[in-house]
Amino acid sequence: MRVLVAYASKHGSTQGIADRIGEDLRQDGHQVDVRPTGKAGHAEEYDAFVVGSAAYAMHWMKDASTFVKRNRSTLEQRPVWFFSSGPLGTDRVDKEGHDVIEASLPKEAQEFAFLRPRDHHVFFGALHFDELGFTGRMLKKMPATRDTIPEGDFHDWEEIDRWAHGIGRELNG
Ligand SMILES: Cc1cc2nc3c(=O)[nH]c(=O)nc-3n(C[C@H](O)[C@H](O)[C@H](O)COP(=O)(O)O)c2cc1C
């Protein structure tokens, strides 16, 4: 099948996840393009879609939302999977006892639920203060954020591979 993996990424972490999903789907025998949502081309050419975005302040990046809205009529008729990349750290439950993954589901999960995606999966992300420019320098200086926002690469590549191969198998169904 022809699959488009479209992603929105500010600092590269979500791009890395999209590239990996693309590789996994190719291993499963699919023809895959991995493209930023802003340069994704003609959606009608594809049989299935995997669309993902980094989460910032509980929202997808604008490019990703615009892609979904613009291609709504195509996405409504084909299998679609969503993913978000966001939570940082290794804790699966936060200090208030909330499930970190559930609490990190961005607002767009509900907004785009009408498309009946096969799944909306949240993956742990990555954050390096030095790559954030001015914002990063500010965050690093403020004890409130420095001590609560974990810095590092928290990607779980095995989980990403499992999820992607699940899609690959379903499409081969
Ligand atoms: C200012 C700021 C706000 C963020 N807000 C959220 C958020 O609301 N939810 C979340 O899960 N992650 C949040 N994150 C973490 C990012 O989503 C995470 O670093 C992600 O991997 C970045 O992806 P990118 O490198 O593709 O841009 C935030 C990070 C920063 C720096």
Summarize the structure.
The chain is α/β, with parallel strands linked by helices.
Q: Could you characterize the architecture of this molecule?
A:
The protein is an alpha/beta fold and 173 residues long. The chain has one domain (2-172): Rossmann fold (3-Layer(aba) Sandwich). Helices cover 39% and strands 23% of the residues. The strands form 2 sheets. Strands 1, 2, 3, 4, 5 and 6 form a 6-stranded mixed beta sheet that branches. The protein has a two-stranded antiparallel sheet with strand order 7-8. The mean pLDDT is 94. Flavin mononucleotide binds next to helix 1, strand 3 and strand 7. Flavin mononucleotide (FMN) binds next to helix 1, strand 3 and strand 7.
CATH fold type: Rossmann fold
Span between termini: 11 Å
Biggest β-sheet, characterized? 6 strands, mixed
Number of structurally distinct domains: 1
CATH superfamily: Flavodoxin domain
Q: Roughly what fraction of the amino acids lie in strands? A: 15-25%
